[in-house]
Amino acid sequence: MRRAFLALLLRDLRLAARLGGGGGMAVFFFLVVVAIVPLGIGPDKALLSLIAPGMLWVALLLAALLTLDRLFQADFEDGSLDLLSMGALPLELVAVAKALGHWLTTGLPLVVVAPVLGLLLNLPVASFPALLLAMLAGTPALSFLGAIGAALTVGVRRGGLLASLLVLPFYIPVLIFGVGAAEAASAGFEGDAGVQSLLFLGAVTLGSFVLGPVGAAAALRANLR
Amino acid sequence: MTRMTSLSATQRFHAYANPTRFMALSGVLLAPLWAVTLLLIGAGLWFALVASPPDYQQGDTVRIMYVHVPSAWLAMFGYSIMAVASAVALIFRHPLADLCAKSAAPIGASFTFLALVTGSLWGQPMWGTWWEWDARLTSVLILFFLYLGYIALWATIEEPTRAARAAAVLALVGAVNIPIIRYSVVWWNTLHQPASVFRMDGPTIAPSMLLPLMLMALGFTLFFVTLLLVRMRAEILRRRVRALRLAQAASGAEG
C-alpha cells in the first residue's frame, strides 16, 4: 500500500515537472495579483506595508484556488481515476496523495516566492519569518480542503469556478489565522496573539488532513458511479 | 425509488420512505399546517406591530426584531435540517432525505437573506451604518455563501442521483466547518475591533415583547415546515413527470 501511495505521489510530481503550467502558472498569477495591488490603491509605502500580510494571503488563496481543477480533472478525463478507484489504495489515500502532490507543486512554490512579493509591498523584513511560518503551516490546508471542492466538481463542465465558490468559505479560517500570525509579527509585539493564531492555524491544517481526504473520497465515490 | 431495503433501522422509518405514502400524508397535513401558520403569523404581527409597546431606547425600530430574530433562527435551523437530511440520505439511502435536503436549501437561503437585509435595515438607525463587520453579521453572510454553493452544486450536476450524493457530502463538510468558521470569525473580530462591542440582546427582554417574538418564531418555523412539504411534493411530482417523459421518449424511439 505504501508503494502504491509513493508511486501515485511520484507520478503526480513527475507530471507536474514535465508538463509544466501548473505550479509555475500559480506563482505567476500570485506575482501579477500582488503587482496589481499598488497600481490599484496607490504607491503609498506606509499603507502598503499595513495591508501587505492580508494582501499576500488573499492573493495566495486565489492562486491556490486557480489550480484546484488540476487535482482530479485530468485523471477523470483520461480514465485513470476509475483505475485508481479500483486499485489497492483506498480512495481516501488516493486523495491524500493527490492533495500532498498538489501542495508540493503549488503550495510550496507559492510560499517560497511570498517573501519576494513581500518586498514589493514594503512588508518589514523582520516579519518575514513569521509570515513564512504561517504560510508553511496554513497552505497544506488549502490543498486538503481544496481537494473536497475539486472532487465534488469532478466531471462537471466549468467545474473550476464552481469549485472555487464551494471551497472559498472553508478557506476563511486559514485566511484569518494566517493573517493574524503575520500581522502580529509585523506589528512587532512578541505576544500571545501571534503564537495563538499560529497554533490555531496548525489545528485547522491538522483537521483538514482528516476532513479533506474523507470528504474528497466520498465526493469521488458519488461522482464516479 | 420506492425500493425498500432490508438494511432499514426500523420498519416505520422506511414506511414513510415511500413517496406515494408521503404524498398522501403530506396532502392531508398541508391545509391545517397553512391554517395554523397563517394564524400564528397573523397574531404575531398584530402583537408585534400594534399591541406591543415601542422600546424605550430604540422606539419603533425595535419592531424589526420580530422579523429579524426568527429569520436568523431559521437560517441556522434550515442548515441543520439540510445537514441531518444529508446524513440520513448518505447513511440509509432514504429516498426522501435527498428531497428534503434539496428542498430546504432555497428556503433556508431565503431566510438567511431576510435576516441579513432586516439586520442591515435595523443597523442603519441603531448603529448608524448599513453594514458592520461584526462577528455575527459576518458569520451569517458566510452561511449565506454556503447555502448558495450548495444550491449551485445541485444546479450544476445534471444526473439527479449523482447530484444528490455530491450535495450531501458538501452539506456535511459544511456542517463540520461551520463551528470552525464561526469561531475564527469571532476571534478575528475581537482582534481587529475590540472597542466596538455591539450586543443585540442588550437588557433582558420584556414580556410584552417576548410574546410576539415567540409567536413569530413559532409561526415562521411552521411556515418553513409547510414550505418544505410543498417543495418536496413539487419535487416528487417533477421527478414523476421526468420519469414519464423518459418512458415516453423510450417507447417513442422503439415504435
H/E series of chain B = HHHHHHH
Helix content of chain A: over 70%
How confident overall, as mean pLDDT of chain B? 83
Largest interface: A-B, 31 and 30 residues
- State the total count of DSSP E strands of chain A: 0
Oligomeric state of the chains present here: heterodimer
Shape of chain B: globular
Counted beta strands of chain B:
0
Low-confidence runs of at least 5 consecutive residues of chain A: none
Rough outline of chain A: elongated
Radius of gyration of chain B: 21 Å
- Strand-residue proportion of chain A: under 5%
| Derived structural class of chain A | mainly alpha
Biggest beta sheet attributes of chain B: none
Q: How would you portray this structure in words?
A:
- The complex is a heterodimer of chains A (225) and B (255).
- Chain A starts with a helix and ends with a helix.
- Chain A has helices spanning 2-19, 23-41, 45-66, 73-77, 80-86, 91-120, 128-152, 159-187, 192-224.
- The model of chain A has no long low-confidence stretch (mean pLDDT 88).
- Chain A has 225 residues and is mainly alpha-helical.
- With 255 residues, chain B is mostly helical.
- Helices cover 79% and strands 0% of the residues of chain B.
- Chain B has seven helices and no strands.
- Chain B has helices spanning 11-15, 19-51, 65-92, 95-127, 135-156, 160-192, 207-254.
- The longest helix of chain B has 48 residues, at 207-254.
- The two termini of chain B are 27 Å apart.
- The model of chain B is unreliable at 1-8 and 194-201 (pLDDT under 50).
- The chains are: A mainly alpha (225), B mainly alpha (255).
- The A-B interface holds A 148, 152-153, 156-159, 162, 165-166, 168-170, 172-173, 176-177, 180, 193, 197, 200, 204, 207, 211, 215, 218-219, 221-223, 225 and B 90, 142, 145-146, 148-149, 152-153, 156-157, 161-162, 165-166, 168-170, 172-174, 176-177, 180-181, 183-185, 187-188, 191.
